Amino acid sequence: MGDAQTGSGNDATRPLREDIRFLGGVLGDTIRDHEGPEVFDLVEKVRVEAFRVRREEVRRSAVAEMLAGVDIAVALPLIRAFSYFVLLANLAEDIQRDRRRAVHEAAGEPPQDSSLAATYRKLDAAGISGGRVAELLADALVSPVITAHPTETRRRTVFDTQTRITELMRQRLRAAAAERPALDREIRRQVLTLWRTALIRLSRLRIQDEIAVGLRYYELTLLDVIPAINADVRAALWARWPEQGLLPKPILRTGSWIGGDRDGNPYVTAEVVRTAAAHAAGVAFGRYLRDLAQLEKTLALSARLVPVTPALRALSDVGYPDPDIHADEPYRRALYGIRARLTVTARDALRAVGAGDTDAAATLPDSVAASDSPLRDFTGRGSVVSGIRAYSSPQELLDDLDAVDTSLRASGDELLADDQLAALRHTVETFGFHLQSLDMRQNSETHEQVVAELLAWAGVHPDYASLAEADRVDLLTRELRTRRPLLSPHARLSELATKELGIIRAAADVVAALGPEAVPNYIISMCTSVSDLLEAALLLKEGGLLDPGEAGGDPFCPAGIVPLFETIEDLAAGAATLGAALRVPEYRDLLAARGMRQEVMLGYSDSNKDGGYLAANWALYRAELDLVELAREQGLRLRLFHGRGGTVGRGGGRSYDAILAQPAGAVRGALRLTEQGEVIAAKYAEPGSAYRNLESLIAGTLESTLLDVEGLGPDAESAYALMDDLAARARAAYARLVHDTHGFVDYFRQSTPVAEVGDLNIGSRPASRKPTKSVGDLRAIPWVMSWSQARVMLPGWYGTGTALEEWVDGDPERLTRLSDLYRRWPFFRTVLSNLAQVMAKSDLAIAARYAELVEDGELRDRIFGMIEREHARTVAMHAAITGNDHLLADNPSLSESIHNRFPYLEPLNQMQVELLRRLRGGDDSELVKRGILLTMNGLATALRNSG
Questions:
Q1: Which letter, b or e, does each residue of 594-615 get, where b requires 16 or more Cβ atoms within 10 Å of its Cβ?
Q2: Could you tell me the CA-to-CA distances from 456 to 27, 464, 497 in Å, in that order?
Q3: pLDDT digits (tens, 9 = 90+) for 641-673
């Protein structure tokens, strides 16, 4: 496997080819040594044949013919071999990106778009007034939110080993010749560890596992990278507009759905909410305590040598119970006292959250709860903790740290203040006591059921579900005017109602213990009406998160009520729905008490599954236009939350481009967006990639907020009308296949591994919302992932070609019009660029092999024929509009990636088809099932954004 032809031979890609060749050789040696010559020889023969297929030297069926009938005992190591090769190729590509970036910077070339350096240049050139900047960035927030339905297929042990190999490869690049043999041996050891590690889980992930997986990225990168970026951005903006006091709060703050998103996930309970919040807080407290312990050692400054401020002296006087310990080291004494107070704070807060642990340290990750942890040094140590008052808020802790900072600067010791202490202050300011905001989410249908039960039990109305919308709103607003609860402590409710109220009460306990930022949002899935918003408000009131206030007073609700508009129809009606809610005094009063801040979430996945790629993207854009206009009319401070997935079919693509593609006024300094699945690891597993991805989010937000990036000017309305037309045509074409073609569901289920996706054990959520065979009830992840595995990628392009071709209708002027929009309009350019990326990963020759699994020949030919024709039509229209001679002309790095890895996908796809055929033919042995899951894992790893 070491002599793979992996590139074109130019100097720029030679290091990448050498890395891939080296790692492939190590893997090949490992296979030969531990699986024997028979397996190694087959892997080599298949690999060579796959490259011959790519060079069109043999028929496409050559690899399939080699693998037909292969013994399953041989097939399993073969699948693992190609799965691990693409994993190692991913690693080599990540290193290559860093290598190229270093060369670019060393050459002194201008900063690249999506970097903050490039953004600052653009802002400087624009000459924006400080007042305007302050107005637009008044509520600045960029919040990546890790979601509760991952498609990350790698086990943590595999992930950790890959991380070690990556670091060793980086060391190898810098190593002297004499050091390389030892490094090579260690790399071989780690590759052997990979080979001996099972790729797939035997059991489905629990939510507790997902919580731990999400939090590991804080220890890996986020605790260090995010505060540093926040400090850098604030300093850069203050240097340009010093009089404005910009970004009083850190702009970059993270969120999570893991443990709070119960829409379709029956495993989220009140205990899970408490666990999620407690473990997140434990990561934050553990980090602060470790840093404080280190600062005590670093700042052992003597009072005999350095003066201190009165505030610092006061802190030092109460730092130690024994006044003679470190008597002449006021900074050490002060920091010891801060650490003692923070220990009590952590203990009390974690107990108040009530995650089932009596020992505060028991809620912390292993790396924090070790025997030498500062928390364990303090907790329960009698006189050290006795009588020490907990901090009431992160700001109180910051005040003490600021006193230390001020004292150091007063004595001219800025160098000391700007090091570890500054980093700790920025970290506390960013993460508070909660680390990340935990969003709550539930479906409006569940809210309706629970509210109906509560109202019936309280004797308010026996059949709420029978009421018309106006009557529902009238009843709900009456209840929201009073503090009177509907329930008594002894009410007997259904299991559903008990569970739902328990979750909200747990969230209220979290807010009380960790502050309002701990649970700042309550999201309503499938929100279609005013009553959907008010039902959520009533449940928040009943659970202790909403207080209507005294008569004539202001209500209080730390959790904002967030409608999620998901289908194309709901997106179109979103502004009208929210506008109607604003006409309800009780809802408007809630917003007024929150400074008229209203967040709205936009669903990319269901809108795409509902109407297809182009129609969904335009429905989202149109919804944003309408919401921006509503916000302007009503004085709302609108913030949009983008529910994007990893794939283009679920809103994926480059985040920077996606932000610039938003309508004017849709960002205004603030946005949130979901981060999902294998994309999380790709972005945030290493400090360098984490920094680059996070800075691109801020760069896009600043540019979209402060610059005119839409580029349409007076041509906007005509461009919108054109897109209305294209979207309608695209949706109709998509519907003809997905919704109107008889037998389409059968074709989908037989020609993709959708039934097997549910067995992959990649997350805690069921694959379908309901136990039906309807496409509508299938979750977006298995829908997209199944088409990706079969290399059709249908959700990322189908219908677009028909729409473009019909609209142009052979008219050169119309084609020129589209080409002009492609050049000028970021939205249209991004739509076509993302489409090209996903189509470049499709392979209809492979897809035809999957189509052979469909039993009905007439159905197979009819539907696959529709897919083939639309694929060709879409590729042709993309070329005509963009002028590019191939799909990835504007993305050479992805083109290179496909060149390097996709020949290794050929065996994985061909083996998957072979094993699916065996399984469906009656061979349901455990090894066949395992082989299918292994191919799915390998393909997902190679595609990198599969779900």
A1: beeebbbbbbbbbbbbbbbbbb
A2: 65, 8, 12
A3: 998 765 544 445 688 999 999 999 999 999 999
> How many helices and strands, by DSSP H and E, does the chain display?
39, 9
pLDDT in tens, 231-260: 999 999 999 999 999 999 999 999 999 999
Cβ atoms within 10 Å, residue 717: 9
pLDDT at residue 379 in the model: 45
High-pLDDT (> 70) share of the chain, %: 91
Cβ-based burial of 128 (10 A; exposed 0-12, middle 13-18, buried ≥19): middle
Tell me the CB-side half-sphere exposure of residue 21, using CA atoms within 13 A.
11
Residue 919 has pLDDT above 60, yes or no: yes
Tell me the per-residue pLDDT of 371-401, one tens digit each, with 9 for 90 and over.
344 444 444 443 345 578 999 999 999 999 9
- Long-range contacts from 94-99, C-beta under 8 angstroms, 24+ separation: 94/166, 94/686, 94/689, 95/16, 95/19, 95/166, 95/169, 95/170, 95/173, 96/13, 96/15, 96/16, 96/19, 97/893, 98/170, 98/688, 99/15, 99/173
Which 8-state DSSP code applies to residue 361?
G
Cα–Cα distance for residue pair 616/703, rounded to 1 Å = 25
Three-state SS letters, 693-708: HHHHHHHHHHHHHHCC
- Which of 410-415's residues contact partners 24+ apart within 8 Å by CB, and which partners? 410/307, 410/309, 411/306, 411/307, 411/308, 413/301, 413/306
Q: What is the DSSP string of 149-179?
A: S----S-HHHHHHHHHHHHHHHHHHH--GGG
> What global pTM score does this model have?
0.91
Q: Looking up tokens 């928040």, which residue turns up?
A: 540
CA 904 to chain CA mean position, Å: 28
Phi first, then psi: give them for residue 37, nearest 5 degrees: -65, -30
Partners of 639 in beta bridges = 599
In 741-840, at which residue ranges do the beta strands (DSSP E only) sit? none
For residue 413, which amino acid is it?
Answer: D
Q: Which residues share a beta bridge with 641?
A: 601, 672
855 and 750 Cβ atoms separated by less than 8 Å: yes
Please name the helix (run of DSSP H) or strand (run of DSSP E) that holds residue 182, with its range, or none: helix 180-195
The mean of the pLDDT values for the chain is 90
DSSP secondary structure, 272-321, as one string: HHHHHHHHHHHHHHHHHHHHHHHHHHHT---TTTS---HHHHHHHHTT-S
Question: Where are the alpha helices (H) located in 354-468, listed in sequence order?
Answer: 374-378, 394-410, 414-416, 422-431, 444-457
Please, what is the angle between helix 892-920 and helix 72-106, to 10°? Answer: 170
Q: Which of 279, 326, 447, 609 is catalytic?
A: 609
Task: Give dist(CA 706, CA 703) in Å, integer.
Answer: 5
Q: List, in order, residues 6 or more apart from 177 with CB less than 8 Å away.
A: none
871 counts as catalytic:
no
Identify the pLDDT of residue 94: 86
Residue 761 — very low, low, confident or very high, per pLDDT cuts 50/70/90?
low
Helix (H) or strand (E) holding 66: helix 62-67
Catalytic residue of the set 149, 279, 326, 541:
149
* Nearest in space to 97 (alpha carbons), one of 686, 546, 843: 686
pLDDT tens for each residue of 142-179:
999 998 654 455 677 888 898 899 999 999 999 999 99
For residue 136, the SS3 value is helix
Q: Which amino acid is at 427?
A: T
Contacts of 92 (CB under 8 A, 6+ apart): 16, 19, 20, 23, 169
State yes or no: pLDDT of 358 exceeds 50: no
Tell me if residue 149 is catalytic. yes
Whole-angstrom Cα distance, residue 386 to residue 389?
A: 9
3-class secondary structure per residue, 718-752: HHHHHHHHHHHHHHHHHHHHHCCCCCHHHHHHHHC
- Residue 149, pLDDT score: 52
